[in-house]
Amino acid sequence: MIDEQTAREQVVTAADRLFYTRGIQAVGMDAVRAEAGVSLKRIYGLFPSKDDLVIAVLHRRTEQWNTGIATSAEGAKTPEEKLLAVFDFLSGWFRQDDFRGCAFINSYGELGASSAAVAQVARQQKADFQRYVASLVEELGAPSSLAPQLALLAEGAQTTAAISGDASAAAHARSAAQILIAAALGRVPAAA
């Protein structure tokens, strides 16, 4: 018998893959059981409700997002480079074969009206990202109004890439971000 941590990891991994590929409401717990190789009784012992499982998946997605952003910014020396690294991260993500958009936007779209807990996790991730961008904008010395503009570019690029299937949304958003940053700092924007 597998230990609790391993079972939990198998279930969250399976649920993440299924929810992200097919949609949360289209996936029953029997499908999660079959994919994870963990009994339904054990799954419900770990996650008393499907919402609890969705929240666990979203927490994992938060860790993946934060790690991806941090990894992309590792070589960046300035706040501006760190801000632009967000769009570089998005560019790589959008090119993955299994890219289906933002799991938080997708989850909120499916369950936001019926699950306050899922809505809260999605809102929290978006708020955390906005705070990250705002901290870099502050460090850059740019007006605070730049932060929500850059966050909106990133969010819009995710949605556009998911719907259109065109990974170039990240490059377009990055170019727009460069122009906004230059304008906010009183520089002449470079031609995009």
Quick structural gist:
Helices cover 74% and strands 0% of the residues. It is an all-alpha fold. The protein has a domain at 74-184: Tetracycline Repressor, domain 2 (Orthogonal Bundle), CATH 1.10.357.
Explain what you see.
- 74% of the residues lie in helices and 0% in strands.
- With 192 residues, the protein is mainly α.
- It has a domain at 74-184: Tetracycline Repressor, domain 2, CATH 1.10.357.
- The radius of gyration is 19 Å and the shape is elongated.
What is the fold's blueprint, element by element?
Blueprint: H1 4-22, H2 29-36, H3 40-46, H4 50-73, H5 79-94, H6 103-111, H7 116-140, H8 146-164, H9 169-184
Helix pairs in contact: 1-2, 1-4, 4-5, 4-7, 5-7, 5-8, 5-9, 6-7, 7-8, 8-9
- Tell me the series of helices and strands, N- to C-terminal: HHHHHHHHH
Q: Tell me the helix content.
A: over 70%
Secondary structure class reads: mainly alpha
What is the number of strand segments? Answer: 0
Structure annotation, total helices: 9
Largest sheet: none
Shape: elongated
The CATH topology label of the domain at 74-184 is Tetracycline Repressor, domain 2
Task: Compute the average pLDDT.
Answer: 96
Q: What CATH architecture of the domain at 74-184 would you give?
A: Orthogonal Bundle
Low-pLDDT sequence parts: none
The CATH superfamily of the domain at 74-184 is identified as Tetracycline Repressor, domain 2
Over the alpha carbons, how many angstroms does the gyration radius reach? 19 Å
